Amino acid sequence: MAKVKSRKKRRLRLLRIAIGVFVILAGTGAIVALLWSLLGRSGSGTMGGAGSYRPMVRPGEAIRVSLFLSCDVQGRLAPYRCEEGELGGVARMATLYSRWAKEAPQRILVDAGNSTIVRHDAAESVNAFTFSALDRLGYDVVNCGDHEAAQSLDELRMLSRDRKFKLISANLVRADSGAPIFPTHHIVQRAGLRIAFIGVLREDILPLHTGKGVRLKNPAAELGSVLNSVKAEADVIVVLAYLAPQEIYELARKHPEVHLFLGGASPVTSAVCEVAGPRASPGSLVCYLGDQGCTVARLDGAFAIGATPTIRGRIAILDHTVPPDPDLLGPISEFTSALSGKPLPGSNQDPKMPCTSSFVGSDVCKLCHIKEFYAWQATAHAGAYVTLLQKGSHKDPDCLACHATGHQMPGGFDPERPAEPEEPEKTKDAKEAKAKEKELPAPPKVVRQDTLKGVGCECCHGGSRRHLGIALKDRFAAHRTPLLRPKPSVENCIRCHTTTRPCIPAGTSDTYERNEYMDRIKHWGE
């Protein structure tokens, strides 16, 4: 009898121990799950390209995430001088990012490529300082561009070592094995949303050549390969593309599953954001910078699983109106000292030449394109701003994006900026007038707001400050002036001419017909 009681007690004791262990494990699991959920929604973590997990975002739930974009820094950590003044610099970039961060708690910092420098006596030192600066600014993902591809395999490995941000490229590979040098993509999580960033650059980087131990594969082929594996891992796909605009649009048409293409390698900056052609998904958007590292973009997106993203953006110039961040002045001073008297990156810029594609207004275009200007004046584009005044919508940002020139872009229309007073015309004698004719004209220092009302020349052809500077430098060699967008761009047209634009009355539609619409605005010769 005593033995039976002893066995029962032993069993009860073991049962209690088992129950206790189960309760502890269950409690621990619940705590871990709760912490994982909280950390995932805080937006502070980044995920590597490998592996997948269940999204924490419910279908249809819109998550707001902002992307801060730079491109073509090219080691220019300190401002450099051009006709527009002293532009650029990471200290100004830090100030602007800090301002934007107050309005964008969920944000990701990315660079589209060409952050380093080549063909400089102190390139190794400059590039190390550049990557340290990007780390300090809090960058998450950095793509490779021409300058990265022009460095040797050993230089790239050394440069990328121990960085907080992820350096990526899908088509920059080892010359011996063809294996990627860096991760092809990187997934960043914000508020439970998984955003995959894939990096590509152009295959031909002439006049540069790929570095020792490095070669480039076709970006289109490599992007397609990476997308096959990324689709299941991410809720949103972004391609960082150091490619010419036409190459970006071609990729967008082939891969409508990509939500956003962010790029560079362009003479002009795009509008925010262009739609990637009629054959692409309505959700494929494109934005690229072309201002030699003097501008940065902020794209505020609302992303929902299975839905087309909506993005509002702005592009800002890093000029004298943006003070340097005091915390970066020390590192910049160390950077200049480390060069030991060698020229700063960007110091070879012609101080009499503009270096950005800021807006100058249609009246300035008239100086060289007088026939086209007067033909344009007779179109509905020229009077597009008047319709906003009639409706009282002349300060609505959704309307100004399509009815004014360069809204939220450098030098573009700003409804809050007061109108400039008319300058009195000065009388000149014949001798003074003749001497003035021989002087080299310059782009306008102040762009009048009236010249930016309506759909002006630069809405379709791109901001033209640098284009104008090159043209004015040699007025008699127009063929030497790089063209902006010489032909009408369908991608730019359907940025505004969509069936979903806010000014279309409910229940009606306005399908864009290219030939019909082009005939309405024709101001060019055959």
Features:
alpha/beta; globular; Purple Acid Phosphatase, chain A, domain 2; 2 domains; 7-stranded mixed sheet; Flavocytochrome C3, Chain A, domain 2; 34% helix
What class, by secondary structure content? alpha/beta
The overall pLDDT average reads 83
CATH superfamily of the largest domain, called what? Metallo-dependent phosphatases
Uncertain spans:
35-55
Number of domains: 2
- From the N-terminal CA to the C-terminal CA, the straight-line distance is 112 Å
Describe the structure.
This protein has helices at residues 2-42, 90-103, 123-137, 146-149, 153-160, 219-230, 245-254, 326-338, 362-365, 370-377, 384-391, 397-403, 430-438, 457-461, 465-473, 490-493, 514-520, and strands at 46-47, 63-70, 80-82, 85-87, 107-111, 141-143, 166-168, 172-174, 185-190, 193-201, 214-216, 236-242, 260-263, 274-275, 285-288, 295-303, 310-317. With 526 residues, the protein is α/β, with parallel strands linked by helices. It folds into two domains: 46-338, 4-Layer Sandwich (Purple Acid Phosphatase, chain A, domain 2), CATH 3.60.21.10; 362-419 and 441-520, Flavocytochrome C3, Chain A, domain 2 (Orthogonal Bundle), CATH 1.10.1130.10. Residues 35-55 have low confidence and may be disordered.
